[in-house]
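#dry-run=false #mode=assembly
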Amino acid sequence: MSAPTGSVPGPRPEPPTGPEPTAGRSPRSLARRRRREALLRFAREYARNRAGMFGLVSLLVIGALALTAPLFIDQTHLTVTGAPGDPFQPPGGDHPLGTDNFGRSVLDLIIWGARVSLTVGLLATFVSVSLGTLAGITAGHFGSSGGTGGRVVASIIMRVTDWFLVLPTLVLAVALAAVLPRGTGTIILAIGLTVWPATARLVRAQTLAVEARPYVERARALGGGHAHVMGWHVLPNVMPVVLAQTTLLVATSIIAESTLAFLGMGDPTTISWGALLQAARTSGAISAGIWWYIVPPGLAIAVVALSFTLCGRAVEAVINPRLRGRS
Amino acid sequence: QEGDGSRLTVAIAQQVDSFNPFTAQLAVTTNILRHVYDRLVTIDPETNGPAPSLAEGWETSEDGLTWTFDLRDDVYFSDGEQLTADDVAWTFTTIMENDAAAIASGNYVSGFEKVTAEDDRTVVIELDEPQATMTALNVPIVPRHVWEPILEEEGDAFSEYTGDDLPTVGSGPFVLTEHSRGEHIMLRANPDHWRGAPGFDELYFRYYSEKDAAVEALRSGEVSFVYELTDAQITSLESVEDIAVNIADGKRFQAFTINPGAVTQDGEEFGDGHPALEDLTLRQAIVKAIDNEEIVRQGSNGQAVAAGGYIPPRYSDFHWSPEGEEAILDFDPDAANEMLDEAGYERGDDGVRVSPDGDRLELRMFVHSDRPDNVQAGLVIAERLADVGIEIDNRTVDPGILSDALYDAEYDLIFTGWTVNPDPDYVLSIHTCGALPTEPGTMQGDAYFCDEEYDELYEAQLAEYDPEKRAELIHRLQEVLYREAVVNVLTYPNILEAYRTDQIEDLQLEPAEGGNIWGQDGYWAWWSAQPAETSGSPTGGPSTGAVIGIGVGALVLVVAGAFLFFRRRSTMEDRE
Amino acid sequence: MTTTPTAADGPTGAGADDAPAPAGPRGPGRAASVAVYVLGRLLTAIVSLFAVIVAGFFLFRILPGDPVRAMTEGREVTAEQREELRRQFGLDQPLWLQFLDYAKGLLHFDLGVSFQYREPVADLILERLGPTLLLAGTGTIIAALLGLFLGTRAGWRPGGRGDRINTAVALFFWSVPTFWLGLLLIVLLASGRGFMPGLFPTGGMVDPTLTGPVERALSTAQHMVLPIVTMVAVIYAQYLMIMRSSLMDEKGADYLTTARAKGLRDALVRRRHAVPNALLPTVTLIFLNLGQVVSGVILVETVFSWPGLGQLFYSGLQVPDIGLVQGLFVVFAASVILMNLLADLVYPLLDPRVRP
Amino acid sequence: MSGLLDVRDLNVTYTSGAGDVPAVRGVDLSLEPGDTLGVAGESGSGKSTVALALLRLLPAGTRVTGRILLEGEDVLTMKWGRLRAVRWVGASVVFQGAMHSLNPVRRIGDQIAEPLMVHGTVPAKRVEERVAELLEQVGLPASRAQDHPHRLSGGQRQRVMIAMALACEPRLIIADEATTALDVMIQAQILALLERLVEENGIGMLMISHDLSVLSATCKRVAVMYAGRIVEEGPAHQVVHDPAHPYASALSAAFPKIGDPASRLAPRGLPGDPPDPADPPSGCAFRPRCAVAETVCATVDPPLWPVRPDESGRSERHAACVHVGSGRDGIEGASTPGETSTEETSR
Amino acid sequence: MSAETDPLTAAVGTDTGETPILRAEAVEVAFSSGVGPGGGRGTARAVDGVDLDVAAGEIVALVGESGCGKTTLARTLLGLERPTGGRVLFEGAPLSHRSRDLRDYRRRVQLVQQDPMGSLNPRRTVYESVVEGLRIHEGTTVDEYERVAGALSRAGLRPPERFLSRYPHELSGGQRQRVVIAGALILDPEVLVADEPVASLDASVRGEILRLMLELRENLGLSALVATHDLGLAWNIADRVAVMYLGRVVEVGTVEEVLSAPEHPYTRALLSVLPDSGVEEGPVVLGGEPPDPKRVPTGCRFHPRCPVLASGEAERAGVADMCTSVDPEVLAGGPGHRTACHWAARVGGPESPRTVEGPMSS
Ligand SMILES: Nc1ncnc2c1ncn2[C@@H]1O[C@H](COP(=O)(O)OP(=O)(O)OP(=O)(O)O)[C@@H](O)[C@H]1O
Ligand SMILES: Nc1ncnc2c1ncn2[C@@H]1O[C@H](COP(=O)(O)OP(=O)(O)OP(=O)(O)O)[C@@H](O)[C@H]1O
Ligand SMILES: [Mg+2]
Ligand SMILES: [Mg+2]
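#status=ok
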């Protein structure tokens, strides 16, 4: 189906700008321009949302720090043998957040850990949200309007989803992590592959609700194919659910890494927030009152998760016509 | 309610596999059963040597094949029956004859020919071959009149019998009275114990699956004793009033072994160890490149002793440490580099050496991910070996993956560690050629080590009944191990424990100097522990605590509820 | 082409001058159709369960490591002792035979034997089921109620102060690892350091020295406080967020204007009209979570030494005790299946539109 | 002046979205008990907005000014608590698109009962009885109370809404296109029912409809709206059959009459663009589409003048057009129009 | 009064015998309820055998009370519902339900839905909703903007710029309806199937829309099937009218024939209740619930509510037995005035006695 599916559910995405000199432009460039304008408008509206900007900026700062970390962190300081301080130094001049059990600066570790943690958080979320959304929309759509063939597809998808769904997430992740070679990729896969069914379920429920609305029938009466209905009508209407899931999943994924470590499935040699937490735990820092080793990684995860939520919230405010103009 | 007596609470984490003394294997259960059933011989906390227990004395025949133990005559089981030589003989014979009953202690009787009760007080054990470990038979002696019917009834299913008929009937200083899986285990003192009544009326083991929670419980007084602490925890507990920490000499060693090329007993090669590691020079260079002191510092935060020989210094008779000339493998990266240069291991462009056969020195190192000290040591080793041009592929993995790699010989370096008993025979036996696998995957030990000299020395020490001569042989065994650089001991981690002095007055360490409390080879600690004067029962508080806790919870709820209610009241009017 | 009158379709008759009564929801075939519906769901559930059992069995067989080696690791055992263990647990047989045995056992609710405890897995699980249900059930119910309540508040006035504070707090807790929060709570509220008295026990479920049922119940309640607080804090955000977004979706609906026009208080409009509708998508989630929560309490139980299934699983994982882990896997999955089944059965009660 | 409903100078401006939309601009209405006022007018002229404004149901952020006296009390300045008490008891609404105005997950019986409970109109144990009675009134068997809205046809749902609106025996019923979705048969029933209620109980009814024949048959008086204003108001029959305002006459002419050969295959519309409430034309809003517009229309936005007044200058009817009788005089006489005439609208 | 010579009717040539552009042939649509809690057993025969032709350039009105199956028939004609019996023919060829064919078909045949509230996606602006069909079939075109604006202003939303960026909840009911109409017209369809297209429009706008339809028919040869319960609408624009009752067409003929000289008692009742109908006997209000398509009465489906039967007139005409036991035949869809009534067949219509087409088998 070649139906155009406006994938960016931007605000007021169409140009009510009056008859412009459109002559001489190819439809393709027009479409491109339309999309660009929609994006611009989206950006403008987004920029007006203060909380959203705050979230975005803090994410960007964290991301930039993580990316440029090699420039200002001496990597030998992150090795066990090259640790610059004494073990468990409390926060102070040289080490603003103190040191860990090897004498490495906790601040350095946090910044460096962002590299892995953000990767895990983003990729795992991406994998599970896109998988879940795709499965949910497809199953919901074909289940309600696909004809017999579609229904078969839908029920297969749903069976698979249901089947994944009943597998206890954590247990499955543990098994996956145990079978696959240790590493960030495995963690991403283990999380991504086990978390999606919940998203799929939610999205499917929402899809079914949307599919029952007359405007979907109108779209079909207009000749819109499956892709059109799913992309143009269903997707924007499941976006709130997807956004809510996404914001939750980013934190979940980052934490899942440390949870897997807690259960003995992590890779203690990588530096990530989850691994830091786990290292803090195994070193007994919690009951020893070495708070500077435990609190920062936890807070870092929370800050990222909150920033994501603020962004998600702002996007939602921009794309939901009824919320427009508020907040 | 019977909790009026004094109680000693221990935080434990490991689950109970079985209270069947024939099958129980996990550390927690063997530790507990040690207080329930006496052994023939125990260990003297002062001398670290064998001490009389059920057996008042023992003697050996000339050929060393017959051992005669004289039993005490004042030992009664907790059901009032007297313990006789018949019980002892039956216990040993059962283990020898019944596979299911051999699960826990089969290794002690493998060299036994026959065990007989000469009379009520005398047990005679006949051996196939001399066996120097006869005074270290860690076999619980059980009442025949209780276990024989069970054995008959269970038959083949005996191995699944978990001994959950409580209270147990035993001769030890405590009687196991209660077990609530995953919650607690209760032992009551046996006031009629032949050695004298224990100081505490109750020994209460409480489950804490999270160590930090256990430490907090120690702080709050809910438990009297915790063990297996970390350095950070010890450091912070040290300064706490009413808490004493005990840093004991380690019984364990932490080591890594090098795959020297795995072979079966028939000489069939298998696995995929790095071929260059067959070269002794390379192995020695690897060991020289590693600073055990640094591993003590970084890997164990100082709570360990840098190792030389195989057996920890705690067993001063058997411990051996390379001195002077012998210390050929001391940390010396320059020398290591030199050795490698000389042996033709050229550095490649990336700084990684290549063996004379053209194999790049990239070695897979397997580390237990669940052992923080191993993980940390692994990091140090990886970084240090880089200094001598060896690249380490650090595989910090699950024990399962690690053991697969070990048994399939698909590793280059691998971490290992053993807790060494007062008699080191077993940990030595695993490096004999006889421990090599009969076919791939069936190895007994933890390294594919096989050395004729070693095997000879091993046989000799096993047959040597003279302690000093035996110690000498064992020293030489360790020297061989050290030289061959296959089994490389890194550190002896300290044992870190803490207890509340306002609950426990005084207890016996084993050994008395630098000894530990938990996991003693005897039952000295809990038998000797005396309740402190001020000892409030550690769990005496909860009911008041409960009242306070629930009160506070309720208060919070009420306040929150009221807040919400009034807030709603005030805003309800003006909202649409 | 002729159309024949079909008498089967309804009571008609000569001279019937009033229209046939509309088919009410309580038609004659209702009981039967409900039964068919329920049976259908049950059948699906059973098929899922079977699939899970097969998956569980093979999944845990491909886990690396030899359980017998793992069990005896670090202890002084001979090859014969190991062989004996292997034989005992049937690990010496080919995989398919093991599976057949296992499947046969399942028919009598025999989940095999735990390597670690040497006890039937089913017994172990039954023993621990109570505590887990107590903890997980209470925790989920509180979390769901709290999340729904606050989510309703937040979604009713999105962007408002209450919304911002509520979501920020919820997300903060959502983003901290369970064990981290649990341990901090122990440090702060249980250990009695500093000026804080130790208000709550550091772990366990009940003080075993207490014998009176009331005392024991009180003690259990006290032991439950911290685990429940941890659990609730960590999961309620999800309910809040979902409730919030579905309520926001519902906010523009015309029937809310109707409700307002009827003179209902704002709170009533929300409670009686908006929430029941917004609840529909949330219900799916609640049931999903209810199923997952049994396995989700692994961390909480571990931190607070709660003698439940989660802790059992954790201990099984350390060994690894394949028999146990696999049995728990089946139980965890079965709980999800059961909850899904319940969701399927309950949903039509909530949403009349899906009642066929 | 103590009529049932008295609306003075009602202005409503929507503020959401792209800019302000002044949907209602200075509407005056009044209604006595036992009266029926019909409101017709162009789609988008603000009829529903007026209806919603009467009970302050407009979306948050909408600007409403003027005065809405319901039995002497100003709805716009009421306390919320009082407003809630007034809603449904003082006045109830049948919404346009009533099919969507029912809560899909609640039984219709409960939804009808709800206002009864909230306002305590009947004792709790009589509620069920009353619900059954209401359903019977609108021609639904009482057993349908157990059904959920999706089981009802559009027409049935609409009738449920009407039953609900009648529940508390309000003094005023606002029916916004209450019969649009109904087929003629049911429409006839419902209209008969409403007429009876108005007559018997002396309640007032504000009936918004596009169907002029319905309005003329049911209402005593009719007001015609255009671009947010009332452009003509008067006795129903006169306004429908003999309209004075050009828009009203266009509307009336456009209404099809079955059997009238003139309208057969010749639907009549209104040429020209509908007004933009955000940017109304100067002067009379209808001017751009008006066939009889004059220059003066571009400058004067005429108020409601009496149409064909009697000697005392009074009339049953008023229209906002310079062509209407006194209107012209008023303008030409350059007197300030408005006050007097609007005063006269209410008797 | 007969309108057989009406010039317009003749002009569009419904009698020429060409293949009708759209044709329903014995279409049946039955909804069978699934199984589940709540019950609701049985099959709802929403459309129960309908023959109906729409000739090229013809406007047919489908009238009938609520729930008689108008919407279902309209949806079936669009291929949105698969008929459980009979078939739909477009230009003489049976409608293919393959998605590619349907797409092409739906480019030429457009549907205007009954419910303007629900037919617009709340998250899409007016512009997007109108342009949707265009995008589906033509992608983005250069003159897209102009076409959208044109369609909106044709539908009476003028000036269009004012509405382009609004969302449905910011429109009045009539404005929403017109957006839907604009969305259907933008593709210049050949056939328009409109379900209550003007129900929520005021007379003037509605007149305008209807005139637009007539214009389109004149200029582009648009054909239309308009489902409505508004008889005035039929009078305004339709050439022919079909009266539906409980899933069946019970009377069909030209507008003049049916509305001026109704034969079926149901049609007569319908006309009698119009507020200013000139019927002397007064309105004939039919009692009882609207019939339930799950329980179609035996015999004539109208008989339980039939005033003629109730008043004993049928008895007098001697058809009362037939009324309760014999189901009248399905009426053919083509031109001509036909009534499915035993009584009318016997006594003839009140003004122009005619015969019901005899029982036939097809
Ligand atoms: N929420 C809103 N935001 C902005 N404009 C709105 C909103 N609601 C309605 N409008 C506009 O206000 C005007 C009046 O709308 P209203 O619904 O009162 O019309 P109406 O007379 O009821 O029309 P109809 O007969 O079509 O229902 C319309 O132009 C409409 O576009
Ligand atoms: N999906 C469905 N499942 C079951 N029954 C249905 C379904 N759709 C319609 N019906 C039933 O079919 C009959 C005809 O419905 P339809 O919507 O076609 O009527 P209508 O003539 O359009 O009525 P209205 O004038 O109220 O719109 C109704 O009784 C309706 O209840
Ligand atoms: Mg309106
Ligand atoms: Mg319809």
